[in-house]
Amino acid sequence: MICNKISSQKWDTKRQDKAERINSVQSIVKQKIIPTSDIVPALERLIKSGDRVVLEGNNQKQADFLARSLSKVSANSVNNLHMIMPTVSLPDHLDIFEKGIAKRLDFSFSGPQSLRISQLIEDGAIEIGDIHTYIELYSRLYMDLIPNVALIAAYSADKEGNLYTGPSTEDTPAIIEAAAFKNGIVIAQVNEIVEDTRDLKRVDIPGSWVDFVVQSDKPFYIEPLFTRDPRQIKPIHVLMGMMAIKGIYARHEVQTINHGIGFNTAAIELLLPTYGNELGLRGKICKHWALNPHPTLIPAIESGWVESVHSFGSELGMENYIAARPDIFFTGSDGSMRSNRAFCQMAGQYAVDMFIGATLQMDHEGNSSTVTRGRLSGFGGAPNMGSNPNGRRHTSKAWLDMINNQQGETISRGRKLVVQMVETFQSRNNPTFVNQLDAVKVAKDSNMPLPPVMIYGDDVTHLLTEEGIAYLYMAKSLEERKAMIAAMAGVTDIGMTADPKTVKRLRAEGKIVYPEDLGIDRNRANRSLLAAKSMAELVEWSGGLYNVPAKFRSW
Amino acid sequence: MICNKISSQKWDTKRQDKAERINSVQSIVKQKIIPTSDIVPALERLIKSGDRVVLEGNNQKQADFLARSLSKVSANSVNNLHMIMPTVSLPDHLDIFEKGIAKRLDFSFSGPQSLRISQLIEDGAIEIGDIHTYIELYSRLYMDLIPNVALIAAYSADKEGNLYTGPSTEDTPAIIEAAAFKNGIVIAQVNEIVEDTRDLKRVDIPGSWVDFVVQSDKPFYIEPLFTRDPRQIKPIHVLMGMMAIKGIYARHEVQTINHGIGFNTAAIELLLPTYGNELGLRGKICKHWALNPHPTLIPAIESGWVESVHSFGSELGMENYIAARPDIFFTGSDGSMRSNRAFCQMAGQYAVDMFIGATLQMDHEGNSSTVTRGRLSGFGGAPNMGSNPNGRRHTSKAWLDMINNQQGETISRGRKLVVQMVETFQSRNNPTFVNQLDAVKVAKDSNMPLPPVMIYGDDVTHLLTEEGIAYLYMAKSLEERKAMIAAMAGVTDIGMTADPKTVKRLRAEGKIVYPEDLGIDRNRANRSLLAAKSMAELVEWSGGLYNVPAKFRSW
Asked: Which of A271, A342, A391, A510 lies 20 to 30 Å from B212 when distance is taken between CA atoms?
């Protein structure tokens, strides 16, 4: 039965459309090169109203010149764009909406722009598609959010469009591929255009994937987002770090790991060479890392704790250190680092024993969110790494330790360790533990179908506060999980619901522990236990290779 | 406190080692080219005993010349290799172990070699690391299984090592990157070596990522693994397909999808243009696909059902059809397809509403496995796609339909639809539903810490058999789930445990349905409802573009 065949259908409309767009700028471009001063008229011809446009802007690398230029196009000729942006971090990113050039936004993380996003939603200037974890957003580029245009950033290009993305390769490959192989237009801003392919340090993206390159008016914006000054690590972080190392890392023999970016996980990194060595753990835990090149990891690397680090992106100031440590970091034939956000997120989800990070709020069931009052911040990679990959089939000591057939299933399986490490209060009057996440109200106010939860309670295997550790994976029911969370919630409202008898039982059963139970002397929990107490000491550890960014210099 | 610094440590041992290996073959190679006849001595110098070697072999594309050559190296000079192989499918893959060249194996899928793997384990000739889902295996290449050597396959290379991987790009990028950026050795077998970069159809892998290329003695092995002849689709498949379309796809408005590779899902593909049209569903369901280019999808594409298809790999015979349908498939600037197994698995996990596939065995709790008696087959991508990604944060009608706060959580969340579509018997005396999966015994016999389960019961949202559909996501407890499974298990032992009163209640509550409940006329469930009933009709639908592989030709 041959029926319903649409015989008149054209099957290469996108290819034709792409050819027309490219033709329309032939008076402006010289082969693949758009002159810097002509970028706005070029964008006005290459982008059509209603297009899906993916704009690179991740934690560190920003296609800022292209964002700025896009905000200057005429909203009369280009409007109703559907922007797909891993990170919304620059004012220009939202100017595009305010000026009526773009209408709809799908994103992963906002950060400094989170308050303004909320206001723009309220004003009706922006229509939110969804908030995603990074790798989920990249995934949709291949399914139902295939881009018409990709605007990306690289260090340098040759005249054929070959790109060097260097240490901050980040999400460029995942973004470009979706457009380049579906007849989308790929435009790369670069800091420099070189004469010949041989003048590129290396080729990260082949030229045939790139339609146009434009030299930006100034090098792309990059900031040392994950650098933590050891001076700001407090004794409470040291105490929590000691508990983490002894009560979690050592107990479960955690081999592969992703750390969050707070001062508490920075403390752990700086405790490995001191407290960790004292416990005889070197070579036994924390060997393989999915992590940006945190400067606070330098002492652990230099003391022989770290076998390998694969990175999402780079970190300003770490370039020379990384280049001098190719046994540890992923580096290219030119010696500089290669990062890859998609693959590192993939590894952070599927290949690590443990994710450890923090949150701003946690409810009684253990659900957490960084979306608080009026700030639609998104979550970046946390939902991906802070969740159990149900498809994982390889085992490890740590993963097997999590077995708990809660419903009485006859077949056991392990789990990834997901550790939430928080102080009970964010500031004096701002409890971390709340009866209801602000996210619930935000969802209602923004007409979102569900509250934006960062990590769900049943994915959290361990809760670590200054009070102690709750081994939530051992909970036999939601009720018991709630009791364990309350036991660690200090003097917050939720902490006050803890029933002393239940707490005693949980402690006796080893489901919660205090520092004393772990044999940790609170008196030792002070900054003298840190392998480096200042940026200067990190430089010393690095043998002068770490180049401290200006904002972190006190000298 | 500066302490424990290992001042004498060398940090570029891998780079040095790589340089030495490359030096050792300078008498053999001409720049990057290894002469075909010298591949064995070259491998003997480039690979060292104990190395981790990743050997490309995925569903379709096989680095078969390199596998064959590796099996010829002297086991005296090269031994104890740790092989990492996405797919173990050729006899040579296991000869390497039998000859004592390799010892340890990490893999994802075996298939025809599954019986021999089990025997080699028993004989002590092979030591199994873990069985993985594809994307999990790639992930570990960046963490704790970083390869020393990558042996991969491409269509063509130029003298600088630039590669054209073409329609079957598959997992090449994910594998090469891990070795290329960690000072591993990358060797590519190619069907041809061209003079100049401009003679390559396009560049898929930049030359600086590749250390050596060798022209294979014959083109790499490829087989049409996912081609299903419509002649073999039976009336029972048509009935099940009708139920799937009406009772699942339409009910939940499934937009984005991954199909398994059996005759039942092939039947669905061929029912969309007929039964689907009749129900007025065109443009309302199944718009975006994560799928290899199945020939049985041609009628749906030609009838305007499909907006886009992103593929893991290619399918022999589909080349011209794909090249003529760039609006649907991902194609490069040269017009040929670009597949990408890592990204397609990522999309199949995070971006689709639904996964639908089959299994060989399912137990009473809904756990399923294709590991049966003595066959350590592995699961390929099924565990990844057939599981809920807990990190997903975007919503869709289908995903939201799955909300069921089983434990009484206060915050709701959706789920991916995971549909198991099986006949109650695999063959007359071989029930699909079993009291215990064979995998449990296999695990015990092979000293595996856990049974190799393909998909866990609590990830399955729908069970579809010839009896009807069980909406498992509506189950309020493990007990209820078991009752729903029994209701669909026909006259198997598990089916016989179904209690008529419970079945009646489940039906009244809409938790299970029969074809009648869906308004499906069993009399219409025959082959005349298929849009194509033979390979010849698929060719006709394709306008002569589909080139039927020899083994499927009856003319």
From this structure: A342
Contact status, residue A387 vs residue A459, Cβ threshold 8 Å: yes
DSSP letter string, A122-136: HTTS-EEEEE--HHH
Q: How confident is the model at residue B315 (pLDDT cuts 50, 70, 90)?
A: very high
Q: Which two tokens stand for residue A130?
A: 């969804």
Q: Which residue type does A402 have? A: M
Given the structure tokens 């291949």, which residue do they identify?
A142
- pLDDT tens column, A53-102: 999 988 788 999 999 999 999 999 999 999 999 999 999 999 999 999 99
How far is Cα A207 from Cα A227, in angstroms, rounded to an integer? 34
| CB-CB under 8 Å, A408 with B2 | no
- Write out residues in chain A with pLDDT < 50, as ranges: 1
* Beta-carbon separation of A288 and B324 below 8 A: no
CB-based contacts of B469, cutoff 8 Å, min separation 6: B243, B247, B248, B462, B463, B488, B512, B513, B518
Best A350, A397, A476 residue to mutate vs chain B (most B CBs within 10 Å): A350
- Closest CA–CA distance from residue B504 to any residue of chain A (Å): 25
| Exposure string over A491-525, b if 16+ CB within 10 A, otherwise e | ebebbebbeeebbeebeeeebbbbbeebebeeeeb
Query: Which positions ≥6 away from A345 have C-beta within 8 Å?
Result: A133, A134, A135, A312, A381, A384, A385
Work out the angle between the directed axes of helices B114-122 and B91-98 (0-180°, nearest 10): 10
Q: Which of A142, A255, A340 sits opposite B347 (nearest CB)?
A: A142
Facing B303 at nearest CB: one of A6, A385, A408: A6
Q: A310 and B143: CB-CB below 8 Å?
A: yes
Question: How high is the ipTM of this complex?
Answer: 0.97
Mean pLDDT of B23-34: 97
Set of chain A residues whose Cβ sits within 8 Å of the Cβ of B347: 139-140, 142-143
Residue B316's identity, in one-letter code, is L
Strand partners, A462: A419
For the record, the structure tokens of B529 come out as 């409802």
pLDDT at A3: 54
Please report residues of A whose CB lies closer than 8 A to that of B342. 342-343, 346
Give the domains, in start order, of chain B with CATH numbers: 29-215 (3.40.1080.10), 230-535 (3.40.1080.10)
| Closest-CA residue of chain B to A439 | B411
- Nearest Cα to Cα of residue B65 among B189, B180, B155: B189
**pLDDT, tens digit (0-9, with 9 covering 90-100), for B415-460:** 999 999 999 999 878 999 999 999 999 898 888 999 999 999 999 9
**Minimum CA–CA partner of B311 in chain A:** A142
pLDDT at B197 over 70: yes
* Residues of B in Cβ contact (< 8 Å) with A410: 363, 365
Please give the Cα distance from A53 to A69 (Å, whole number).
14
